[in-house]
TrEMBL record:
Name listed for the protein in its UniProt record: 3-oxoacyl-ACP reductase
Keyword Oxidoreductase among record annotations: yes
E.C. numbers: 1.1.1.100
Keywords: Oxidoreductase
Molecular function per GO: 3-oxoacyl-[acyl-carrier-protein] reductase (NADPH) activity
A family per Pfam: adh_short_C2
Family: Belongs to the short-chain dehydrogenases/reductases (SDR) family.
Species of the source: Streptomyces coerulescens
Domain Ketoreductase: 194-368
Statement: the UniProt record of this protein carries the keyword Nucleus: no
Length: 431
């Protein structure tokens, strides 16, 4: 369903009226397209504290000065005490106003040093700073924090956050490890030669994820329930992939997936999910168990089976779908919130072991209000609240979740592990 309020505020009368009434003024976001793959303008580099990062090696095309930058990268890895935090203010205060609409600010921080509580305090302060700036900067601009020790290991992450692909990702903290990463041979098709399976891919967000991974070169397996087999085949045919009709909650789902992929799997996207909303006092046991089975138990079973069978190849990626409902809670969704919080627990526990034992990373995306047929059915006033209660004052698109998934699936994202990234426009709900 079209966001008529967003369209109205893009007109001269709309801007005048909403300004006079103090109403939200969302800006139309600039998203990725083949015709406009990058933000138009300079990428300005600023520094706070003494840094040891070699940002020249990233190939990000950073410049030391710009009057109207499309993006600003602040290297604050050298901030080690309260006094040095003043340099954060000094670096960004003069340039914030000049950042273009739908522009980007990315702050680079260092891991917290457990042996130096002054450094840990100063670096943790960057998180509050980043999230606060994201809530006030406006005009479709985003602000994110990346904690890292090696700039080259974070190249895919920085490229994503400085691009139109991250239009609905703001106020996030991403930690990038020190692992060695290998850039793909073809930057335009980084997943070429790789196989990706997306569950629940016959429609909605899953379909968008399949489309985006196919755009990046992956061979796509579209998995959905037998009732949606016709739609799954339609999507697979359009993307040059294959369809797999399968109830993901079946005890042998993992074994059947492994049998269908004798040559192995590189990217596993757990997207399938259902809702059965009702307040706990009115919720039958069946509504509870069905949501937990689809959204969490099936994810655990199939992940375990595909890792144990070796179907997920070394260098593989698992991307699970959580939700801000699992992070912040939501009335009428105790079952759904529990299932999605469980996905977060799975990611945080499995990620280090899966990387060490199988060479596979495990991450999650946590969508907020995304414009789908499901959200279009929500009553008007609740739908409008969902759209406006974030720093970008609008709903996201399935493509926003898909682009974030594609970044986590990227071959050069091997240093990103155990992360839960909210795709919510910096929702005001939860952390």
């Amino acid at each position: 369903m079209a966001d008529r309020y967003l369209s109205f505020t893009g007109t001269a009368p709309g801007r005048f009226l909403t300004r006079r009434l103090g109403l939200p003024q969302p800006a139309a976001l600039k998203r990725f397209s083949p015709e406009q793959p990058t933000l138009q303008g300079d990428r300005l580099l600023r520094t706070a504290g003494k840094s040891d990062l070699d940002l020249d090696a990233t190939g990000l095309g950073l410049t030391a000065s710009s009057d109207h930058p499309a993006a600003v990268l602040l290297d604050a890895t050298g901030v080690r005490d309260v006094e040095t935090l003043a340099e954060v203010h000094a670096a960004l205060h003069p340039v914030v106003r000049s950042v273009a609409s739908s522009g980007r600010i990315v702050v680079l921080g260092a891991p917290l040093d457990p042996a130096d509580h002054h450094q840990a305090a100063a670096q943790q302060a960057l998180e509050g700073f980043t999230r606060s700036l994201g809530k006030e900067i406006g005009r479709g601009r985003t602000v994110n924090l990346v904690r890292l020790t090696d700039a080259c290991a974070a190249e895919s992450t920085l490229a994503f956050l400085l691009s139109p692909k991250s239009a609905y990702v703001s106020g996030q903290v991403v930690e990038v490890g020190p692992q060695d990463v290998t850039a793909p041979e073809d930057p335009e098709r980084p997943l070429a030669g790789r196989t990706a399976l997306v569950t629940g891919a016959a429609r909605g967000i899953g379909e968008a994820v399949a489309e985006t991974l196919a755009r990046d070169g992956a061979r796509i397996v579209v998995l959905d329930v037998p009732q949606a087999e016709q739609d799954a085949r339609r999507v697979a045919e359009r993307l040059g992939g294959t369809a797999l009709a399968l109830d993901i909650t079946a005890d042998d789902a993992g074994a059947r997936i492994a049998a269908a992929l004798p040559d192995g799997l590189d990217v596993l996207v757990h997207n399938a999910g259902i809702t059965r909303d009702r307040r706990l006092v009115n919720m039958p046991a069946e509504r509870w168990s069905s949501v937990l089975d689809v959204n969490l138990a099936s994810v655990l079973r199939t992940t375990d089976a595909l890792l144990a069978s070796g179907t997920l190849r070394e260098g593989g990626r698992i991307v699970a779908t959580a939700s801000i409902a699992g992070l912040a809670g939501n009335a009428g969704q105790t079952n759904y919130g529990a299932s999605k919080a469980g996905v977060v627990g799975l990611v945080r526990s499995l990620a280090p072991r899966a990387l060490a034992e199988h060479g596979v990373t495990v991450n999650a995306v946590a969508p907020g209000f995304i414009e789908t047929t499901m959200t279009a059915a929500i009553p008007l006033f609740i739908r409008e609240a969902g759209r406006r209660m974030n720093s970008l004052a609008q709903g996201g698109l399935p493509a926003d979740v898909a682009e974030t998934t594609a970044w986590l699936a990227h071959p050069a994202s091997g240093a990103v592990n155990g992360q839960v990234v909210r795709v919510c426009g910096q929702s005001l709900l939860g952390a």
